[in-house]
Amino acid sequence: MSNRKILFKVVIVGDGGVGKSTMVQRLTTGQFIPQQITIGTDLAIQNIRINEKTSVKLQIWDFAGERRFRIFLPNYSRGATGCLLCYDITRRSSFDNLEEWYQIVNNNADNPVFILVGEKADLADIRRSVELDHAKEFKEKYNIEYFIETSSKSGENNKKIFETLTRTILKRKGHIN
Prior knowledge:
The protein has 177 residues and is of the alpha/beta class. The chain has a single domain, classed as Rossmann fold. It is built from seven helices and six strands. The chain has helices at 20-29, 73-77, 92-96, 98-108, 124-127, 132-141, 158-172, and strands at 4-13, 41-49, 54-63, 82-88, 113-119, 146-149. Strands 2-3-1-4-5-6 form a six-stranded mixed sheet, sandwiched between helices. A hairpin with a 4-residue loop joins strand 2 (41-49) and strand 3 (54-63). The longest helix is centred in the last third of the chain and has 15 residues, at 158-172. It is globular, with a radius of gyration of 15 Å. 37% of the residues are buried.
């Protein structure tokens, strides 16, 4: 039996400076590379191997978080099968803006899999301003399957987020059990 190759479009959204681009860089390079602010959108490709027969190519659209670019997000969201909804656990305003990000993607993509991502987990002990309970309430309110905190600096949960997203999309589409 030949290997299946599957392509999924994933959008990563959230306020500017929350760590979306460094999360993608950690995934694609294995290193923490501090990023400049994204202008518009960046595109990355990453292969995720699920098993010996299934390899998924993720087309990752890292969307700029500045308000002036939000007008473009509805178009970028079309065709997305997954969305990482990101906020900075040390910046409450980035969490407070999640509903707007969620609504834009949810209204323009066709039933994407969402994962709520709390960025900068390495700062949790000293600078946390978004409590875990608040994130879990948001997850429940919007029926989001997963909530994961990550650190691009340490690499904590970085690959797990993308693997979880990929497996969940595959299950929803009937590719795996």
